Model the fold of this input.
Amino acid sequence: MADVTKTSDKDANKLEYNPQTGSLRERLARVKGTRWARFGIVAAIYVGWTVWMGNPWLLLALPLLADIYLTQFIPWTAWKGIKNGALRTVMSWVDAIVYALVLVYFLFLFVGQNYQIPSSSLEKTLLTGDFLWVNKVVYGPRVPQTPLHFPLAQNTLPLLGCKSYIDNPQLPYHRLKGLRSIESGDIVVFNFPAGDTVALKVQNPDYYTLVMDKGREAVWSNKAVYGDVIYRPVDRRENYVKRCVGLPGQWLQIVNGVIHIDGKPQAQPENVQFRYVVMTDGTPISNELFDQLGISQDDRIGNGQVYELLLTATMKQTLESLPWVQQVVREDDEFLRLNNEAFLNYDHLATYPVGHNYGWTHQNYGPLWIPKKGMTVMLNQENLPKYERCIRNYEGNTLEVRPDGTILINGQATDRYTFKMDYYWMMGDNRDNSLDSRYWGFVPEDHIVGTPMVVLISFDKDHPLLGGGIRWNRIFHDANPDK
Done:
């Protein structure tokens, strides 16, 4: 007769770890139906993802999934056998957190992610304090070029202040098949193209503007002011959100703030803003009116009689209708020429390509051809600065100009270049207060992240949380209302 060991009720209530043992057939025979169902669902999702990735080698990981859910030759849940209750509890939390991080990692990479609007460059279409859900499936998710990174941080770990990623390995650019390509008027999230080089203590303005203003030697040598100067991989650069106004292969020109594509003026977004000087009879604009107009406290610039405000067409009409408002004047180039010539002269050098004076300003810019994959541009000393960054920084070529004007690409003399990628022109709807492509140039296709679909929630920093700080009317608001 077999021995029977009695156990107390207390012992009977203990959860004991029962590891899988025996041959493959014996292990599979003991697997419950629910675990078979879970494995089937996970395996189907994984196979579908592998087909989407277009890489059959990924199927080699299927036996690992089978071991996690079914056979457990690797003791994945060995921590359940720890006798110390406190340690076992800690390990259960670690197990749950790791599982959640892996899930979040894949969700954020291949489906979508939430982003916050930190600045006013797209007001009044998107507001500072909006939290967006960004769809990465529309244009096709980008396979991570820097795969070893913490999934909840873009490039810096909170509190610790160190890098949230490991530089190597670096994978080549590859994008999965999406639902459609970028269209004119889309609001797009992308990695900041000029964010490849960063002075850690002064990241606004960007490194290239700093070098133009202060000189390269000053930026590199004065670490107390500018910090270390580092390089960031494409997918670890800061995320920006702007409106796509120019597509690959198109000619772009801006005439007095109006965008022209291939010579044709384009309709302005409904909430596009420009800077105006507002003159009153001495009656100050009240905070109530500022709130009604939707002008944040940071943008309420004036002395009670003369104001400098960013206004949409509707906001401008509202002010012009008031009897005590005497004049509302657009700060166009002619106005700046008469009143702020210093800024106008600076704008000539600050606009892209930085440091090259083509006589362009942010209100009168171009014409400029936007590079398209497979198309060739003839190069000369006049137009080379417009495309130099694309050729060297984005497409990885060496570029040299000899004293006699000869252009060498990868050591070979040439007068033309064929582009390897598509490029886009991005601008903010807050046209006179937006650092966009007019200042840092083209956005390469490998920098594209996705398109915002909906505003999840929105916070107004000018009001307390329970006193108007939550913009309830923007919850689940369309993030791209002009499309």
Summary: The first helix runs from residue 9 to 12. DSSP finds 15 helices and 23 strands in the chain. Confidence is low (pLDDT under 50) at residues 1-15.
